[in-house]
């Protein structure tokens, strides 16, 4: 596919090294003109002299200082060099000396100042004084931080002292400064509640779970840029890229541009698997559009063909893989052939065969996956099959290869000093996913939550949002923390204002490849807002004052005042976290490139390629656990584990097997094998502190739901402009992409009497959402794409007459979820589209 057929260029999703912004409107244009001219190599084309920005020697616009920080949005982890004059932001520039970033930034960089200079920011703690929960008429009054802390502490202690501590829950989010979750975990351990949860089940936990089960660590296996230990390029050296369920051009644009630059040198081929054409697919050699939620079948068939045709790496398998013979027998027994998969996916068998041969024949070959795989009913099993592909072809532990599953697990838990205080025994946690909070509150099963604290937006991010809204209306006590009065704030009893990324020092976002930056604070905090780590330390000190059971000293010793300064907190994280000893603040501040974990000593370069047969990896592996000495793979056997007796036993309690059996969502058209959930609860083998519902696999599907709802819907990011809900609170975000465009194939639209630009309604058995029809021939005729992250509280769009939309996650069914990872199944729901 030629790029110019769809008007796609690198400049379409990344910008040059300067994006000026006062945080209030359109970016400064002259530096952007210069950047575009630089790409064409023709200054005359831009009517400009090379390097001229027309701000040189401007007394008013010459910065008096520049602060190096990091972008808080996607996982490209771009450095932002922020120019200031009189402590006001003049411009945001990229980092030219980072060879991956290459000086570039995407459109979201200019939104960072717009989070600071924003009239809608929360600036003080608030307390509910009147109004029904969820009502637009809810009234709040300003209170002090001390009063907010004491109110929360009194409620938590009351629940603990009346035997209801297990009914306290928290859910973190990816927006928080790194390590805040460790503080939350410590506080919950001291209280005795098991329900400290994270964002994983609505994000990308399944990939990490599958990687850990197969290779030993739940992390993105390879790195962007040069491996400091070998001096060789890693992911840029791949000869083939297989992208499944990842629109990296729009979700990770700067690192995708790095891959394209590498591809230009190596002549690597790129296959993109996605039910709809995206800028990523437009850049590919092959775009493959299966039915939503059928990647599992596609990967099984590729694996079957590679094994049957002996396209695997026998030497690697003999030395480093256990369970290969069992896998071969399993694939043959179930006849997971390309011809079989063609009937399931709608992709021709010849295409599947060609994909398998191209992947197996390229050395090295890299697999990339993102939420398009994570948000499927069989996410864990699908990721496992992708890991098998890499293993049998010898593409693991090799630069330019690997399983690069994007997720939020770097570097796993950040460890604090050992806790001296005794902690009470805790009962079992609520089941993993689908955001089981709502089920608990509404049904009391397995018990009812009474107090919830969140750092995210469950009223937009959770599946079956109408159900979640009803639950939060009935929740006894709710604390919302955030930048703005997002949807959940209307249900809160206490509202706590947090800082944006430019208002704090620390480690915040990171590259998926385990690489992080240090960010310096750019501007003063807005109002009385505080960073999350300070909030939790402050709450711990309020508990110290009010707790009549635990000595105050235990709380204060567990949460020392010195941690209020993030550099002290990070020093302890680096000291106590396995593999992080070399990741000091001083070292990271000196670097123009981020530093990858594991990095055990100040002399260690950090690990780019996990499992690389190289001394730097073996040193790092041993730093994670002394038992790993001499191990290449960090599984019990020291090898890639496709199947073992222990793994089979652990998964069998949940209805799964170590050798995955195909099934899919019951709302995929075609009546394919699906799952049935047991009412009983068992201990989760993936999250052993929690429960899960066992499943019965291979249950015959039926097409009953498709009589009324004949199409398959899927949700995802609206465009490169938006990252979660927060970018919808910036003028640029709403100016560029404030309309929810429902992507519909022209033939499907014609049969429904819908024209391009019509107001439409997408309806599912759970509810309906509105949008604007965007007729797009780059989507399957049986599929509809509904952009997520829109919500009814996003009043910034009123400036542009943007509609206030109900969340897209009104449409999916929360009862269908991956019972191993807890992932919610956003990537398929039965639906229909009607003209509004």
TrEMBL record:
Domain 4Fe-4S Mo/W bis-MGD-type: 64-120
Cellular location(s): Cell envelope
Cofactor(s) needed: [4Fe-4S] cluster
Membrane-spanning segments: 12-34
The keyword Membrane is assigned to this record: yes
Alphabetical keyword list: 4Fe-4S, Iron, Iron-sulfur, Membrane, Metal-binding, Oxidoreductase, Signal, Transmembrane, Transmembrane helix
InterPro entries registered for this protein in UniProt: Asp_de-COase-like_dom_sf, MoPterin_dinucl-bd_dom, Mopterin_OxRdtase, Mopterin_OxRdtase_4Fe-4S_dom, TAT_signal
Coiled-coil parts of chain: none
Classification via PROSITE patterns: 4FE4S_MOW_BIS_MGD (PS51669), TAT (PS51318)
Predominant cellular place of this UniProt entry's protein: other
Domain of life: Bacteria
SUPFAM superfamilies: ADC-like (SSF50692), Formate dehydrogenase/DMSO reductase, domains 1-3 (SSF53706)
Similarity comment: Belongs to the prokaryotic molybdopterin-containing oxidoreductase family.
PANTHER family xrefs: FORMATE DEHYDROGENASE-O MAJOR SUBUNIT, TUNGSTEN-CONTAINING FORMYLMETHANOFURAN DEHYDROGENASE 2 SUBUNIT B
Name this polypeptide is given: Molybdopterin-dependent oxidoreductase
Organism listed in the record: Streptomyces phaeochromogenes
